[in-house]
Amino acid sequence: MSGRPSRRQLFGYAGATAAGAAVAGGVVALGKDSGTEVVGRGVGPYGEHQPGIAAASPRHAELVAFNLRPGVDKAGLGRLMRLWTGDIVALANGRAAPGDTAPELAIGNVALTTTVGFGPRVFELTGERPPGLDDLPVMRHDRLDPAWSGGDLLIMVGADDPVSVVHAVRRLVADAQPFATPAWRQTGFWNGTGSDGQLVTGRNLFGQVDGTGNPTVGTPEFDTTVWSSDGPDWFRGGTTLVVRRIRLNLDTWDELTRSEQERAIGRKLSTGAPLTGAAEHDELDLEARDADGRLVIAENAHARLSHHSENDGRRIFRKGLNYVQDTGPTRESGLIFLSHQADIAAQFLPLLARLDAADALNEWTTTIGSAVFALPPGFQPGTWLAQNLLT
Amino acid sequence: MSGRPSRRQLFGYAGATAAGAAVAGGVVALGKDSGTEVVGRGVGPYGEHQPGIAAASPRHAELVAFNLRPGVDKAGLGRLMRLWTGDIVALANGRAAPGDTAPELAIGNVALTTTVGFGPRVFELTGERPPGLDDLPVMRHDRLDPAWSGGDLLIMVGADDPVSVVHAVRRLVADAQPFATPAWRQTGFWNGTGSDGQLVTGRNLFGQVDGTGNPTVGTPEFDTTVWSSDGPDWFRGGTTLVVRRIRLNLDTWDELTRSEQERAIGRKLSTGAPLTGAAEHDELDLEARDADGRLVIAENAHARLSHHSENDGRRIFRKGLNYVQDTGPTRESGLIFLSHQADIAAQFLPLLARLDAADALNEWTTTIGSAVFALPPGFQPGTWLAQNLLT
């Protein structure tokens, strides 16, 4: 199959960093070759990698974690993966999944992608655990709620339209019913379109441009960062996902001046440019000092501590979804932090530990949920998700 | 000011009923005349009527009801309306509202509209209550939760993008803080775009085409149905809004066959056409009988009982938003039912009573919240919301 489907998947995001890209508005032209089914808008279900990974955050997404029912074994998990594979192919093409009770809710112009993951406990059933895949240790600043943490399976459905997301999730949850029950659901949204319609990085609910420091999709650096190459054979072309639910205290954040906010981040609120630069994607100057001899990007600034040069050059591919959670009339605002990397222990954990120890943003953020998943590689027509692990 | 801004607001929706409309994709070209501030996409804040009424359901919306703080009087309400008017004008134009602490979250391509309403209790402070504006009586099938019911003030913010909705709501709630506190929040979504990108009526989470039987925006019948003309002077050009939170039991609904579902509705699931017709907007033949002599559109079919010919010709302008509400891993699905009419008691209440008594859909739906609001007419540059009531 070669890398072609995945290159096409990448195109949308690669274009996001270039002004006036041909994919403005997110419409991606897909060819009919390579067995990829063509949809009006979005990415097909097939490829070397699962869809929804090497791509910008979708406008809407829902993540559902499941716990396996007692007694479900490797063969049972394989049956579920075959069912889900059928659903995923249909839904990605705007068709009703087999057994769909509301088939008209499947429509084809919403760039729907479904991504599936396995929590650490799955590998007690299957063996061949990807390296570095363990529940994260509890950090000093964490206030984890079990209700938002862990899980044996994950589905992450993204689309331009929440009706389509809700409908797809309902189908996938229904098919999982004999095998697994939902443990948590997280719903988020992201706007990667600027005021003049061009694609942009997007902002979290603090108003920060969020996700600037990522490797560029399609580059060798991205591939090395994200895709597993030295784990078990079945996992080649897979990746891992860290899901952290981070509550943002907008009220205390808003008590800061804008320059205090910018100092905590190390970037300008207006453009996302580093405090040492002029444009969003300018490289950080971590040595620069102001007239008084103080570091322009402070020792504890988030942009410094999360920069790969502080992490032995190891990177992650960092995305997010905004969320709001209402308890009656009271609203909580936050970020569903998502990080892809080939190896969580090697790439993500040192970064997390450093941020937990010193990040200025810790004063206004609290992580209340945490989960890790291995995302199998993609599948091709005639094959199914994680087939090489489960047969 | 004449009716021109409102005609322009209507254009988007009027186009929705015509195939191949020039507004496909929802981009509405606005002129610079009439003092309407121009936004890249959407409707301006000014007009004879408030925006967000004579329009299709937005892709995303949030409704927040407030209770007035003790001691807030007519003058205080006027101060809040002046504050909100300033916010609404800025937000509709993609600008930061005064005092916005995250001004970059205000962007201009998201068709953001804000609509404001007053609950019945407000008129104990102001007098000049619109006719027919009273809390609805509790229906036999209602299972009302006070947490989703009532309220002194309403804001309804709609846009193409939930980040923009959340940001606008945060601003409006913050400005209300000295005067009123949130009583409930309801978040919903709607997809009025078909698979080939054309505008369509949209579907609820049962999969039904929902909202077909409305008067056409821009027609005299629409105007008579929606806009108040014989109430108090200040309310001329205003309307009322009924908000009903309706839980849908998808599980038991899905146990029906498709033909049982269609018989309960009286319309085809595929197209929304009446069971006596071929196309969505075909008129219902309420007398048609099948070969066995049975009514094709059953006595208790929703489409029959909600048809205006059964309601002494009185109509409503009916919209909806889908919602999902998660309690941990458990999901509730439903519809935020929205109905505009000049007079609730005269137009809506008889319809509600008839549906409560006999609607086949009652078996799979439960109303859990209910509220009514008077929506003041629109405002022009230099004036503010409900100024004629509050000065």
UniProtKB/TrEMBL annotation, chains A, B:
The cross-references to InterPro entries, in alphabetical order and at most eight, read: Dimeric_a/b-barrel, Dyp_perox_C, Dyp_perox_N, Dyp_peroxidase, TAT_signal
State the GO CC annotations: cytosol
Q: Does the keyword Iron apply?
A: yes
Q: Please list the residue ranges annotated as the Dyp-type peroxidase C-terminal domain.
A: 202-378
SUPFAM superfamilies to which the protein is assigned, alphabetical: Dimeric alpha+beta barrel (SSF54909)
Cofactors named for this entry = heme b
Which molecular function GO terms apply here? heme binding; metal ion binding; peroxidase activity
Q: Which residues form the Dyp-type peroxidase N-terminal domain?
A: 50-189
Family affiliation: Belongs to the DyP-type peroxidase family.
Record protein name field:
Dyp-type peroxidase
Organism equals: Kribbella pittospori
